[in-house]
Amino acid sequence: MSPQRRYLSGLLAILVSTVVFVIPFAFILLTALKDKKESALRSFSWPASFHLWDNLVQVIQARDYMLLTAFLNSTILTVVSVTLMVVFGAMVGFVLQRRPSIWTSIASFFVLVGLIMPPAVVPTIWVLQSLGLFKTLHGMILIEVAYGLSFSILLFRAFVATIPRELDEAATIDGAGPLQLFFRIILPLLKPVVVTVIVVQSVAIFNDFTNPLYYLPGKQNVTVQLTLYNFQSMFDTSYNLLFMNVLLITIPPLIVFLFFNRQIVAGMTAGAVKG
Amino acid sequence: MPRSKNWSVLAGFAAGLTVMTALSGSAFADTTTLTFLVPSGEENVARAQSLAKAFEAANPDIKVDIDTRPGGAEGDNLIKTRLATGEMSDIFQYNSGSLFQAINPQQNLVDLSGEPWQADVQDIFKKVVTAPDGTQRGAPIGTGMGGGIYYNKKIYSDLGLSIPKTWAEFMANNAKIKAAGKVAVIQTFKDTWTSQLFVLGDFYNVNAAEPDFATKFTGNQAKFATSPAALKGFEHQAEVFKDGYLNEDFGAATYDDGLRKLATGEGAHYPMLTFATGAIKTTYPEHLGDVGFFAMPGDDATKNGLTVWMPDGLYIAGSSEHADAAKKFVAFVASPAGCEAQTAALGVTGPYMVKGCALPTDVPPAVADLLPYFGENGAASPALEFVSPVKGPSLEQITVEVGSGIRPPADGAALYDEDVKKQAQQLGLPGW
């Protein structure tokens, strides 16, 4: 590739990412700064007057500081579900790949079923009710794990196949038991795919709207995506507050990504080189 | 080994968070806590909070916890899901009329017909929360509203126009407004639901011309396409497009744009439900005095009247464990003290459905214009969706087509007749 063409393609990439990522974000930011009347125009313009602090305070104070409860709930929900998914996904993927038998094919069938079958809301609620888990965060965590586990297992299983069996054998000869083998040899080697699962599932769970809406009713159980409805209705929407809320709930994942950017990229490329 | 330390820190963190989830949900002692589910939006929440506060002051042993839900189709699904699983809040606010019938009130809601406050509720509202077995299962919350035309008072006084009582007068006004270089009729088809007012708001006139239209329509004997009075709504909508009275961006404008054009005097008429007064009040308070309202004009000036939308109902779920406390709350909402709490939160947006609720004298002009229709000698009739369970899901798409000149009005009416057929058959109505 000649230097000119390289610059050209680099420039193009910057342009595309500006249009796709920066412009919508700038729109959110600008609208969040406006007052109600100006924001109702929904135009891409510089605010005539700045209301950053007013809007911020109003959004945080809305419905007795509901946003703070929501952040706590969403954080717990995301961290715990993703942790469970990584641990169980890796274990199941490891066993399915390493010990093929009649049972593993049955298990794989159910993993695929979990991926294909659409979940039905009302029967799921009945199950949760009979277990006493409805309207609790534990129940919601189990639901998120159930919905995301199949995909994680498939990812882990494919990746375990690239780890040579000789490593397992060497560890066993050196005296490692099954749990030691998994946690000290295999899991560290799975880092690239662990990172992938964490990124994909965290985004999915943090942004989940419909599942918490149906399975987690109640004011104390609100998650961040549900707070968006505080400022939105058919006849009267406060776009300035709505977009301030969007901004606030977009920032934490963004910060996490900025800080862990190096690990995430390193994890993914490490997998690419090793694979 | 640093890595294993990291892992154990992470595991410990996760375990700690799991323990925290177990701490939520503690027991309440002697006070009863009622849960109260309202649709989202600032107005609904402000009303509910004001009611809850006033009620708690009068009943210290009962606490009211407000919860919100989305509106629209998502909200309908949520209500049905929660009723079906027995997890509905003690009290909830939901539409009256045909949507009330769709949640199976006989099975899911507490019977309120024996309550003493029923005597003070206006009969026009009782009809729309009556279950098929003849019992009332709801109380009114919020105010009644009209479907008609908002107009800009400044444009009217500048051009020396008067309020039209007939369609011909309305069109004559439009011609003068257009000649003065203003937009005569605002339409906002980006939000498709705003397109239905010419048809739905015309029902008073339909009812005046053919008093048995609703009954016959429910029984599959009358049709929009074959009833000359009912077809008028579609024809009117096509007419304002054909004569070029619409704003240029009618296809892409939003409901918010419509309110702005109306309030700031860019346009003269905006067909809408009087719900919008609240939105104008919060977004364009300085223009609130410039906005007035009149009923959809018909053929006969002596028979002009308002098509009325009933307020939401307040219902007690059959699964509620605190039905007695919930009944106290509902009785409070349906009392003059309840009206006062609502007025304190929102101001007056329309007439209450409870007898004895006084309205303050300094109401916005759009509300003042609305009140005479509800008064003693007023001319008002409920909209079709409150007197007939038949309402097709695609009316808004059809009115957009008719209002943009894509489909002739007679075709649109015939298509709507087809649309309601499926819905009537789903409901299992006789005659379909």
Automatic annotation (TrEMBL), chain A:
For this protein, the parts annotated as crossing the membrane are 12-33, 76-96, 108-128, 140-160, 181-206, 239-260
Q: Where is the signal peptide?
A: none
Q: Where in the cell is it found?
A: Cell membrane
Cited Gene3D superfamilies? MetI-like
Name the membrane topology term.
Answer: Multi-pass membrane protein
Q: Which CDD domains match?
A: TM_PBP2
Pinpoint the ABC transmembrane type-1 domain residues: 71-260
Gene Ontology BP term (one): transmembrane transport
The record's principal subcellular location, in a coarse class, is membrane
A Pfam family the protein falls into:
BPD_transp_1
User: Can you name a GO cellular component term?
Assistant: plasma membrane
| Keyword hit for Transport | yes
Arranged from A to Z, the UniProt key words for this protein are:
Cell membrane, Membrane, Transmembrane, Transmembrane helix, Transport
InterPro entries named among the record's database cross-references: MetI-like, MetI-like_sf
PANTHER family recorded for this chain? ABC TRANSPORTER PERMEASE PROTEIN MG189-RELATED-RELATED, LACTOSE TRANSPORT SYSTEM PERMEASE PROTEIN LACG
Family under the similarity heading: Belongs to the binding-protein-dependent transport system permease family.
Listed name of the protein: Raffinose/stachyose/melibiose transport system permease protein
UniProtKB/TrEMBL annotation, chain B:
Pfam families per record: SBP_bac_1
Keyword annotations of the record: Periplasm, Signal
Question: Residues of the signal sequence?
Answer: 1-29
InterPro entries assigned to the protein according to its UniProt record, in alphabetical order: Bact_solute-bd_prot1, SBP
Recorded superkingdom: Bacteria
The cellular location(s) given in this protein's UniProt record come to: Periplasm
Q: Does the keyword Transferase apply?
A: no
Respond yes or no to whether keyword Manganese is given for this record.
Answer: no
GO cellular component terms, A-Z = periplasmic space
PANTHER family registered for this protein in UniProt? ARABINOSE-BINDING PROTEIN-RELATED
Family from the record? Belongs to the bacterial solute-binding protein 1 family.
Q: What is this protein called?
A: Raffinose/stachyose/melibiose transport system substrate-binding protein
The organism named in the record is Kaistia soli DSM 19436
**Classification of source organism:** Bacteria, Pseudomonadati, Pseudomonadota, Alphaproteobacteria, Hyphomicrobiales
